[in-house]
Design goal:
Number of helices: 0
Strand order of the largest sheet: 1-2-3-5-7
Number of strands: 19
Structural class: mainly beta
Distance between the termini: 60 Å
Oligomer: single chain
Strand content: 15-25%
Largest sheet: 5 strands, mixed
Length: 249
């Protein structure tokens, strides 16, 4: 009926080895409509039972209990994903695994009680506050992971606990509505592009012990009025303030 399609695959890998119950439905055009793809019973991995994106643009991921690892960027860009259930057997979740999944509710292992976040070993790997304008990061978190809040456009306020000591690459990139944020003084590292394209960010005060301002840290922060740089800073990348407007430093 022209509704079930392969969107992307690697011809050199049996990436879905062994699964007999996986269903795929996408409302997207074929990437290569003229190329024939042969599928057999060894083509699908038993790790994934369902990956369904309906015609209404809503999606749900349900894993089989045997899965143990979710790789880097596994569901990056699944902007219509509404629910993901992580079984108890999962021991590892890769970087940016849920980047841009801003509508999803997390359930199962590593999910917070409000179903907004995935936290593994004190690292906040993903946050999906959905329609919230303000979000308070749970106490005890030590690291804001790579792309954890990527494109959470509705947020205008984020409160970080004092326990955080590191903010990784692209952690708040694309948070268009974010106006101000207080970075805890315990933070020693802020990764590249951490606040990239936070177009409405107006003020930020950096912690006293940070030593480096990395590439594209404030790129595209057009409305940034002021940045406080502590004495501890030893290196500032050329592109740290690219397209920063009229920020007073």
């Amino acid at each position: 009926n022209n509704k079930y399609r392969i969107i992307l695959y690697d011809a050199g890998e049996k990436v879905f080895h062994g699964c007999l119950t996986l269903a795929l439905r996408y409302n997207l055009p074929l990437i290569s409509p003229t190329r024939r793809i042969d599928i057999n019973e060894e083509a699908f991995d038993q790790s994934v039972v369902y990956h369904i994106c309906t015609e209404q643009g809503k999606g749900m991921i349900i894993f089989k209990d045997s899965i143990t690892t979710i790789g880097d960027r596994a569901f990056c860009g699944c902007t219509n994903l509404e629910k993901i259930v992580i079984p108890d057997g999962v021991v590892s979740i890769g970087r940016s695994a849920f980047s841009s999944c801003t509508k999803v509710a997390f359930y199962g292992k590593f999910a917070t009680s409000d179903h907004n976040c995935i936290i593994v070993n004190d690292v906040l790997l993903a946050c999906s506050p959905k329609d919230l304008n303000k979000y308070v990061v749970p106490d005890g978190i030590k690291v804001i992971g790579e792309s954890a809040f990527y494109e959470c456009k509705n947020l205008n306020t984020i409160e970080l606990p004092s326990t955080i000591d590191s903010i990784e690459k692209s952690a708040f990139e694309g948070c268009n509505g974010l106006k101000s944020i207080v970075v805890p003084n315990e933070v020693r590292n802020i990764g590249e592009s951490a606040f990239c394209n936070c177009h409405h960010l107006e003020n930020i005060e950096l912690p006293d012990y940070i030593s480096t301002l990395n590439d594209n840290m404030f790129k595209g922060c057009y409305n940034l009025n002021s940045i406080y740089i502590p004495e501890s800073v030893e290196y500032i990348a050329e592109s740290a303030y690219f397209l920063c407007g009229t920020a007073a430093i």
